[in-house]
Amino acid sequence: MKTHEQINQLKQISIIDYLSGKGISPVSRNGSNFLYHSPLRQDSTPSFSVSPTLNVFNDFGNDADKGSIIDLVMKLEKIGFVDACSLLERMDDKRERDGSQTLSLSCRPISQEDPEGYTIKSVANLQHPALMRYVKNRGINLNTAFNYLQEIHYTNSKGQFFGVGYKTDNGGYVLRSEIMQKPINLGKSGIKTFTFPNSNTISVFEGMFDFLSAIEYYKRPPRCTAIILNSVTNLSKAIPQLTEATTIYSYMDNDEAGRKATQKMRDAGLNVQDCSSMYSDKDFKDFNEFLASTI
């Protein structure tokens, strides 16, 4: 017999992963929840909801069809509780054995130095389980990620790949995934601006996860315009906007390039408040590494 702790552990196995393994994909999103055509019955409109945060499902066509992944496996596989737990154990063991290998085959990045020759196949809401796990492992709440990030699938001469990212101000895309050591650019490298109306201050971040980390750390959306450089080499592209602000809040990385970027803004005559001390004083590389340490 399973202990209460073992059962709770099985309930942490992602419903989205389980459905994806059966070839069942979400049709749309409602807030932070994903909507599917019901796998338990026929429906004409998506009526089966999954919360990735709570990891529970709810079939709105039948009040009795809701609950944990164990409940779903019992209903979908038409098996009892004990057999459902055994199936989930095998599924979890298999994921532990080859999950990272599968991810590496499907998410390999193109060369940072040679981004040409790609074709973007789709830009959609964030929904792939591997990318959602990656975002959560970086300390970012999925609701935050859904508001700012997209899922981008693309091809090049080496195959089909995907990552999480956003469209930059110049029309390119910046992508990250679990196996990418650095961000990659599809198109020309550029900055990303999130404009806050009537803002006379600007927060400047080096990367996308530093920006998202600020939202999580301060527990609120931005209250001023935010610029993500995506590389300190893009700082010159942001200077025209920065000169219009009364105060710049700098969240550069805790390294020589980051310190030089902050000094470069000051040399341009900008009123810069260096906010990196909140993580550099604790010897963290950047805002995201600092945030992850608090979780």
TrEMBL record:
Protein name: CHC2-type zinc finger protein
Cited SUPFAM superfamilies: DNA primase core, Zinc beta-ribbon
Pfam family, one: Zn_ribbon_DnaG
Any single biological process term in GO: DNA replication, synthesis of primer
InterPro entries noted in UniProt: DNA_primase_Znf_CHC2 (IPR036977), DnaG_primase (IPR050219), TOPRIM_DnaG/twinkle (IPR034154), Znf_CHC2 (IPR002694)
GO cellular component: cytoplasm
Keywords for this protein: Metal-binding, Zinc, Zinc-finger
All copies of domain Zinc finger CHC2-type, residue ranges: 42-89
Source species of the chain: Arcicella aurantiaca
GO molecular function (one): DNA binding
Domain of life: Bacteria
